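Below is one protein, fold included:
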Amino acid sequence: MPIAKSLKKIEQKLKKKSAVHPKARKFKQLNRATLREAKITKRQTDREMARDGQGKLKGAWHVYDTDMSSFKDEVH
């Protein structure tokens, strides 16, 4: 029997049953799919944050470097 990968498919299969035993195969599939879905969502948000913040960070470091270099020149 193939293992369903997506949480959506597993939830659709489980709608037919009223209760799932904690040690049942379907319960384990549901747990794996939930963890997988959370991991995928976290990766997507991390990528989006990196993509959005990438240009901003470069600009911020540039300002920091120029401010510190000008400050060092004034002290000496």
Q: What stands out?
A: The mean pLDDT is 75.
